[in-house]
Amino acid sequence: MTDTAPPAETLADALARCAEAVAVELDRVIARAQPVSDRLMRAMRHAALAGGKRLRPFLVIESAALFGVPMPRALPAATALECVHCYSLVHDDLPAMDNDDLRRGQPTVHRAYDEATAILAGDALLTLAFELLAEPAADPDPAVRIALVAALARAAGGEGMVGGQMLDLAAEGRFADAGRPAPDLSGVARLQELKTGALLRQACAAGALLGRASPAEAADLHSYSQAIGRAFQIADDLLDVEGDAVAVGKAVGKDSAAGKATFVELLGVAGARAELAKLVEQAHAALAGFGTRATLLQEAARFIAERRN
Length: 309
Ligand code: GRG
What we know:
Elements: H1 11-30, H2 38-49, H3 55-65, H4 71-93, E1 102-103, E2 106-107, H5 109-112, H6 115-134, H7 142-156, H8 161-171, H9 185-210, H10 215-242, H11 245-248, H12 254-257, H13 263-286, H14 295-306
Antiparallel strand pairs: 1-2
Helix pairs in contact: 1-2, 1-3, 1-4, 2-6, 3-4, 3-9, 4-6, 4-9, 7-9, 8-9, 9-10, 10-13, 10-14, 13-14
Bound molecules: geranylgeranyl diphosphate.
The site of geranylgeranyl diphosphate has 16 residues, from helix 4, helix 8 and helix 9.
C-alpha cells in the first residue's frame, strides 16, 4: 500500500467540471420558461448554453470550496451569477448597445431570433438569477440568501455593471447632450471596475458568503477578485488589439474603431503586459493565507491574464 495523495486536479479539469455542472443546472432552470413560451426558452438557451468559459461560476464554486463548501451547494449561486453574465452579453450585443453579430462564435441572440426576443430573453435570465438565489437550495440560511440577493443586485445594477456600461457608452460619446469625458487611466479603471469587475468580485463575494468566511478571509478574497478583475479587462483590451476574431468568438478591433480609451491605448502593449504580470502576483499573494487550498484560484489568475478568448 502506498501513501501517495491522489494527483491534484488541474485547472483545465476543474474549469471543465464546473462548466459541465453549470450547464446542466442552466438547462434545468431555463426549462421553467418553456410552458409559457418555447421561443423565449430557446432564446435563453441560445444565450446561456452556447459555450462560454464559465469563469464566474468557477470563481463562486472555488471560492466556496476554500471553506469546504461542496460544489452542489455552491451551484445555485454560481448558476445565478452566470445567468446575469449571459443576460449582460445579450443586451450588450443589441443594436442599441454594441450591435454585434457574433458571440461565443455563434450569431448573437437578436441575430438568431429578433431584437424583442433578445431583450426579453436577457430580462428573463436576469430575473431568473434572483429567483435561484431566493430558493432554499441557494443556502439553508435565509439571511445568507438575502445577503446573496442584495450583493448580486448591487454588483449588477446602477452602482455596478449597468452603471459601468453607462459610463462606457458616455466614453464613446453616445449621449449628444452629455459631452464626452476626456480619456484618462483613472476614468478607464473606474469604468472597467464597474462594467466587468463588479461581477467578478461578486463571484468571490458569493463564495465567501456561502463559506461563512471571516471578515479577514472575505477581505483576502476581495483583494484577489479586484486583481483578477483588472487583469481580465487588460487581457480583454489586448485581445481586442491582438486577438483573432475566430479564436475570440466575437468581433475584434471594435474599441479603437469606436475611439474608446483602453488600458492598452493608455499604457501601450508592453505596459499593459507588465501591469498584467503585477496583477497576477497580487492575486497570488492575496490568497497565500489559504495555502494549497487556493492553488486552483491562483492558477486561474494566470489563466485570466493569458486567455486567448
Ligand atoms: C448591457 C447591462 C449591460 C451590461 C453590459 C459586461 C458587459 C456590460 C458587457 C460585456 C461586453 C464585453 C464583451 C465586455 C468585455 C468583457 C467581457 C465581459 C467579456 C465576456 O466575458 P467572458 O470572456 O465571456 O467571461 P464567456 O463567453 O467566456 O462567458
